[in-house]
Amino acid sequence: MGLLASIVVISIFVEIRNPMFLTLSNLKDIGVNTAILSILAVGMMMVLLTAGIDLSLGATIAFSGMCVALTLVAHPELPIGVAILEGIVLGGLIGLILGFFISRFSILPIIASLGMMDIVRGFTYVVSRSKWVSAYQMPDDFKNFATGSFFGIPNFIFIAVVVYILFYYFINYTKVGRWIYAVGSNPSAAQISGIPKKRVIALVYTLMGALAGLAGVLWVSKFASAQGDTAEGEEMNVIAACVIGGVSTTGGRGKVSGLVLGCLLFGILDNALPLINVSPFWQKAIPGAIILIAVMANAVTRRQADLRALKSRTI
Question: pTM score, two decimals?
């Protein structure tokens, strides 16, 4: 509720400063521009729920996007659905490999994902031969997909909504979804109770990779360009959106509803600050300050909840 109130207050303030903010076209732009971040945040939320982290998603976006772009250059008649499937499969394979090393050899997720980030980024330059795939090389249908719509809903927003519906059901109403929370809340207890901890960890990284692969295809379609340095640093924005949405970096806590609001707030800030002529220097500082405030608020809230639980058990 506090996050929702913050969104309302910020929106009213920006609308007063610039009446163009709450127009239908601008709200549509916010939704489209936030769609890729929102898709990635779903995957990162599951990783964070297991007390893990994935810093390789930016490299996965670049690699899958580059491979799909090169495929479309060679086969411009390829349907959009097949291109999307290629990106998802490539990203899923990268996530599976990362999840295997983390779960099988108990490597710290931050170390494993940093190594995977460099490996995948290097492979991106290898397959592209350090060249770009530019807009004029890509089929028009693929480039137009970013601005197209499905029953009046922009394609990117439609895909993001479908992803959220599927993963909301998966996380909240399936046995595996409950296992994900259990592994992050208390790994030892989860293992004793028979939960296949290693398989759960491998699964969340595979899903994260698959969503990063999907995002890679959407990214290339949106910017009509595939480059080796695509999405550098994007993992920080995704983690920030998750933290703002109330997902705990220590595992076991977070909701899809909060994640939606976190991504929305991140998208609103990204859109609103230029509209009210905030200096580009402050455009980086303000979201950073909000992230710190969100982290501190989450820590205080969690401490208070733990104290209340302790008192109730004592009584």
Answer: 0.93
